[in-house]
Amino acid sequence: MTTIAATGVFRAAWLLVAFPVFGAAVLLIGGRFTDRWGHLLGVLMSLASFVYGLIAFFALLGKSGTGRSQDLHVYSWIPVNGFQANIGILIDPLSISFVLLITGVGSLILIYATAYMAHDPDRRRFFGYLNLFLAAMLLLVLSDNYLGLYAGWEGVGLASYLLIGFWQFKPTAAVAAKKAFIANRVGDVGLSLAIMLMFAEFGTFNFTGVFDTAKSGGTGVTTALGLLLLLAACGKSAQVPLQSWLLDAMEGPTPVSALIHAATMVTAGVYLIVRSNPIFNDSPTAQLAVTVVGAVTLLFGAVIGCAKDDIKKALAGSTMSQIGYMTLAAGLGPAGYVFAIAHLLAHGFFKAGLFLGAGSVLHGMDDEVNMRRFGALRKFLPITFVTFGLGYLAIIGIPPFSGFFTKDGIIDAAWEKGGTSGWILAACAIVGAGITAFYMSRVMLMTYFGKARWEEDGVLGGAGAHPPYTEADRHIPHPHESPLAMAIPMILLAVGSVAAGWFLIVDSRFADFLAPVVGLPPDSHGIWSWPGIIALVLVVIGVGIAWTMYGRVPVVAVAPKGSVLTRAARADLYGDALNESVLMRPGQWLTRLSVFFDSRGVDGLVNGLAATIGGTSGRLRRIQTGYVRSYALSMLIGAVLLVAGLLVVRL
Amino acid sequence: MSPAAYVFLSVILFVIGAVGVLVRRNAILIFMSVELMLNACNLAFVSFARLQGNLDGQVVAFFVMVVAAAEVVVGLAILMAIYRARKSASVDDASLLKY
User: Fold this and answer.
1) Which residues of A touch B95 (CB under 8 A)?
2) Could you count the other beta carbons within 10 Å of the beta carbon of residue B85?
3) Do the chains contact at A636 and B22, CB–CB below 8 Å?
4) What is the DSSP letter of A584?
5) Which chain B residue shows the shortest CA-CA distance from A617?
6) Mean of the per-residue pLDDT values for chain A?
7) Percent of chain A beyond pLDDT 70?
8) Residues of B in contact with A629 (CB under 8 A)
9) Quick one: average pLDDT of A8-15?
10) Contacts of A627 in chain B (CB under 8 A)
11) Would you call B91 and A626 a contact, using CB atoms and an 8 Å cutoff?
12) Across the interface, do B98 and A625 touch by the CB < 8 Å criterion?
């Protein structure tokens, strides 16, 4: 990997991070004084970064060869002899793709949030945190070394924590925020260990330095690095086994779910793996681990998505599953990197659009999230219905929408990997596509079709709804279309959902663009291939099953008991139960044992000694009776003993 | 008459005095018993001086008398004070200084 020192317009690349940092600083330090115009400043800073990102993108298109990897040294963070930690910005095809996704989708979501959060008294703080998130995320993808990347990595974790717990007065939100933070810490440990290992082995954190020397490090080191980076990616991207936090993270406001927990932050793990491609290319073991994690997660998330009645949690399961696809592709080597990133970008559009659509539904339905109380909303929210529907067609992979091109690429790449592992991975990906079609159709049908279920037989939520609503809290929602500030971002994202995949994949546009960073895929196969057609057939079958279950027959207002699998999926496939029994309970036992040892063992020894001394002295002092005769007797005995002793010695 | 008889007498007097200190409750009588013990000691000193043929024991006997006189003065004064305060000369009643 070679870079050149930044020239021309790239010399101002630090502005990309500086804009949102400035916005966050003004909003968070300015406090209530900025309440009136704070959200506008937040949007403006995001748009400014986007505009600069566009300028840099077109300037980059004008370059060729190594000119497309522009490295800007910003300042020396920790200058010590033999240890140089620099803050540097690397603008290359991979990072600029992320910059456009983050600032573009980010700006749309911020505009959406100005209306969505309009009635929240803390809207200014919300935008402050979102700007903080954008700054950290941009630092993550722009840094030219792993230490700067780590700073951004921790920054997005912090922003995610703050935003999941934004409504911290809700105990569930506060707990979910803590859970996300702690689960992320596990992954962060992997990244910090990887960075330490890099410094110990290669003496540098710079991408160029690490990648150039990685080959001489031997496969042992690269495998260790690959597995540690995979652990980091699992934490941030909610991959099995660190997946449990993402579903609870839906406690955050919907724009947060769209931006952080669908479009950008959760894909940071995929970015990390693709960015570290020379390390993974060197270690087939690490690559295999990545593909296994991806394949397991894509099925795991899809199964969870099938059973959730909460619209946001169903989408969260889907996010997990789609990131599983990207991870799977990222583990396939140069054949998959391009499709991983292409699917990531397409997913950024359609999943953000789906979440914003869900937010629009929530907005119209007074924050009701249970899909069993929706129904027939297409008549009430036509714009939301159309944009959501386009996102739906994109995610299930109907040609010519974007998901078809990118997901098909991943399935083909897995298929062409060959061998038993290739077969299994491709089979997982194809089955996953079918399940995706089922659960997304379920969401679609339950929300927008069928009968309106928010009031049936005069009872809110339908007859037999649980919890039963009493006459006192009778509050029937009046579904209505969202304002323009919410509708326009949804429309733009829908356009992206429709066109992104086609634009990126056809004519290998994106593959050629990314080639300097990740290498070219071995050969460009056509759009149509047998695995893709099988997947498409399964998609149609999935839609059909969903139709027979939720479209043909009316949806019941109360969730039926369901099969063993349904109940398992409702319980997040026992991910929390597993964490609880494997990690939490032993931890509790350990603390209880320590407390017992401390109170009975250590304290017992000390307190026992003190009690013994106290008790003995208590008994000893009884000798002091106060009677003269007893003292006289003791003196006499003493004297007699003394005399007797003297006599014994003498004789 | 051998000096041993004096020593035996002194032992008998000392024992009577010691038993008196141990068994009596009245402070005056305890006091008298103490004096008896002191005088038994004096008798022993004088007898041993005679046995040894020097004057050391006799000198010590004088010292004991002087100390006993001083002790009587202080002791009786304390006794008076206690009696005035408590209307009793029993040493068992004055047993407050204890555990």
Assistant:
1) 625-628
2) 9
3) yes
4) I
5) B99
6) 89
7) 95
8) 21-23, 91-92
9) 89
10) 91-92, 95
11) no
12) yes
A619 interfacial to chain B (CB closer than 8 Å):
no
- Tell me if A296 sits within 8 A of A350, measured CB to CB: no
Q: Which long-range contacts (CB under 8 A, 24 or more apart) does A198-204 make?
A: A198/A146, A198/A225, A204/A145
pLDDT of residue A469: 52
pLDDT for A189 beyond 90? yes
Model pLDDT for residues A612-626, shown as the tens digit of each residue: 999 999 999 888 888
Where chain B has pLDDT below 50, the residues are none
ipTM for the predicted complex comes to 0.88
Whether the pLDDT of residue A67 is over 70: the answer is yes
Distance of CA A550 to the CA centre of its chain: 30
Query: Cβ–Cβ of A627/B92 closer than 8 Å?
Result: yes
**B99–A624: do the CB atoms touch at under 8 Å?**
yes
Query: Can you tell me the distance from the alpha carbon of A517 to that of A98, in angstroms, rounded to the nearest whole number?
Result: 13
Alpha helices by DSSP H, listed for A62-170, are: 93-116, 123-142, 146-164
Tokens 């949804």 locate to A490
Token readout for A216 is 């001489």
Best CATH choice for the domain B3-90 from the list 2.40.50.140, 3.30.1360.120, 3.30.470.20, 1.10.287.3510: 1.10.287.3510
What pLDDT shows up at residue A456?
A: 58
Residue A560's Cβ-count burial label (10 Å; 0-12, 13-18, 19+) is exposed
Token digits of residue A279: 């390390």
Chain A residues in contact with B98 (beta carbon < 8 A): 624-626
* Among B residues 6-35, those touching chain A with beta carbons less than 8 Å apart: 18, 21-23, 30
Residue A470's pLDDT band, with cuts at 50, 70 and 90, is: low
pLDDT (tens digit, 9 = 90+) per residue, A388-416? 999 999 999 988 899 999 998 899 899 88
Rounded mean pLDDT, A424-431: 93
Return the CA Rg of chain A.
32
**CB-CB under 8 Å, B96 with A629:** no
Residue A125 in this model has a pLDDT that exceeds 50:
yes
Phi, psi of A316 (to 5 degrees): -65, -40
φ/ψ region of A520 (left if φ > 0, alpha if ψ in -120 to 50, else beta) reads beta
Among A616, A627, A630, A631, most B C-beta atoms within 10 A, so best to mutate, is A627
For chain B, domain boundaries: 3-90
Distance CA A292, CA A428 (A): 10
Which among B21, B22, B98 has the least Cβ separation from residue A626?
B98
CB contacts, 8 Å: A624 with chain B: 98-99
Grade residue A23 by pLDDT with cuts at 50, 70 and 90. Answer: very high
Q: Rounded CA gap, A539 and A394, in Å? A: 12
Q: Does A626 touch chain B (CB under 8 A)?
A: yes
> Could you tell me which residue, A455 or A242, shows the higher pLDDT?
A242
List the single residue in B18, B91, B96 with the smallest CB-CB distance to A628.
B91
Query: Can you give the three-state secondary structure of A481-503, one letter per residue?
Result: CCCHHHHHHHHHHHHHHHHHHHH
Peptide bond into B3 cis (omega under 30): no
A627–B23 CB contact, under 8 Å: no
CB A449 within 8 A of CB A375: yes
Alpha helices by DSSP H, listed for A311-418, are: 311-330, 334-364, 382-396, 402-417
Whole-number pLDDT of residue A463: 47
Question: How far is residue A88's CA from residue A13's CA, in Å, rounded to a whole number?
Answer: 10
Which residues in chain A touch residue B91, judged by CB atoms under 8 angstroms apart? 627-629
Matching residue, tokens 């649980």: A466
